[in-house]
Every structure is written in structure tokens, then in C-alpha cells.
Amino acid sequence: MDALKLIANQSIKTEMPNVNIGDTVKVHCKIKEGDKERIQIFEGTIIAKKHGGVQETFTVRRVAHGCGIERVFPVHSPNVVKVELVRSGKVRRAKLYYLRDRVGKAAKVKQKI
């Protein structure tokens, strides 16, 4: 069991910015298309963070063309190149699943000043 913990601690990234629930972020992730590789940017609001350590993930939600899109990103994945903080949100919940039911300006999160 200690060998697993040792390998897990070595694979943890340290350059992850301090992002929280409600923050708007730009996630730069690698996309493979055939033999080519490119970086795609996914911008949205963090609605959940789960697990901890090596298995830690965060869920980002955005609305594109009236359709809600959610993606789950592993924090320590080599496919996640960079996470940029666009703005900080002021929320009082650990999970923002209620945003799924809201439309338009009601789905906004207040900005932390």
C-alpha cells in the first residue's frame, strides 16, 4: 500500500492554481486528432470539486447555443495543460448543481470583490 501512495504522490501536479467552486476558468486541454495534437480551451464555471489527492476532479459548466455543457477534468491529468482563473465567484454552496435548472441571467454567479 505504501508503494501506491508513493507513486500517487509523485504524479501530483503542483502548478495547479487555487480555484474554488463558483470561479470562472479557462481550461487548456490536449485534444488528439489522428496523429496531430492541439490545445482546446474550455471556459466555464466550476460547479463541483470531488475526491482528493490523485483522483481529484472538477466539473466545469458552460452554456453554448442555449445548450448546457459540462465536462469533468482530472486535476492531475497530463491532458490538462493549464487552468486560467478568469474571475472569482461568491457562493455559499459546495456544489452548484442548481445552476442546471436556471436560464439566462439567473444562472450567473456573483463576482467576489
Can you characterise this structure?
It is a single chain. The protein has 113 residues and is mainly beta. The protein is built from one helix and five strands, in the order αβββββ. The chain has a single domain, classed as SH3 type barrels (Roll). It is globular, with a radius of gyration of 16 Å. The mean pLDDT is 92.
Q: Any idea of the CATH class?
A: Mainly Beta
Mean pLDDT: 92
Number of domains: 1
Read across the widest sheet, the strand sequence of neighbours is: 4-3-2-1-5
Name the poorly predicted regions.
none
**What is the CATH fold-level name?**
SH3 type barrels
Helix tally?
A: 1
Biggest sheet, open or closed, and with what strands and sense? 5 strands, antiparallel
Task: Tell me, briefly, the overall form.
Answer: globular
Element order, helices and strands? HEEEEE
Structural class label: mainly beta
How many distinct beta strands? Answer: 5
Beta percentage is: 35-45%
Give the oligomeric state.
single chain
Question: End-to-end span in angstroms?
Answer: 45 Å
Short note summarizing the structure:
The chain has one helix at 2-10, and strands at residues 24-33, 36-50, 57-64, 67-74, 80-87. By secondary structure, the chain is mainly β.
Could you list some keywords that capture this structure?
SH3 type barrels, five-stranded antiparallel β-sheet, mainly beta, 113 residues, 1 helix
